[in-house]
Amino acid sequence: MIRNWKKIRTCAVLAGWLSVAAAGLWHNCVRAEALQSLQELEPEPALSAPVTLAIAGLGGTKASLPMKAGKPYMLHLWATWCTPCREELPQLAAFLDRNPDLPVIPVALDSGSPERVQAALPRLHAEGLPIWTAERQAVDPFLKSLREPGLPMTLLIDAQGQVRAISDGGVEWKDAAAASTVRSLLHQVE
To answer: Beta strand pairing status for 53-56 and 62-65?
Structure first.
């Protein structure tokens, strides 16, 4: 009787571990499919009032968006604690490394000081990512006008500072056409 109980318990534990492994595999497959192509973004009429956002950088650097008045840019909102963001960040860091001329501004929300975010980048496999931070309540005024805001989120901001397209969820930054797509999107909203 005791031997049977041990076998049943062992089988139950093994089945539990297999269920956890299967769920993890399924989650990873769903996440991989969830990355959106930049080509799916299409500028729409203004979706928000002009975006103004105070951001902090390394060494006490302060800036505000837009950084260049009258110039379109892409704002990428992410967080160190956000699992989908962690999956996308290595691609974004590599994209920005290859395309330093493109105005894509990553801003970490509610992730601590810029120095704390910088310290997290190696474990996130995103070394070299520009460091800008903001508190969530600072972006709430323009996020409230958007439908179902979540992280990560990439916003196409036009020359007047208004949101014109949104990617809710991760973006496929390693796509061969990503840089030309970003250039085309920015040109469309000048």
So the answer is: antiparallel
Spatial distance between the Cα atoms of 34 and 84, rounded to a whole number of angstroms: 9
Determine whether 187 is exposed, middle or buried from the number of CB atoms within 10 Å of its CB (0-12, 13-18, 19+): exposed
Give the pair of three-digit tokens for residue 87: 């999956």
Pairing of strands 163-168, 73-78: unpaired
How far lies 173's CA from each of 12, 64, 142, in Å?
42, 25, 24
Is the entire prediction scored with pTM above 0.90? no
With CA atoms as reference, report the closest residue to 46 among 179, 174, 177, 165.
Answer: 165
Q: What is the pLDDT of residues 125-179, one digit of tens each?
A: 999 999 999 988 888 777 776 666 688 999 999 999 999 999 878 899 999 999 9
**Chain CA centroid to CA 116, Å:** 18
Q: How many CB atoms lie within 10 A of CB 113?
A: 14
State the Cα–Cα distance between residues 84 and 110, nearest whole angstrom: 15
d(C-alpha 81, C-alpha 185), whole Å: 29
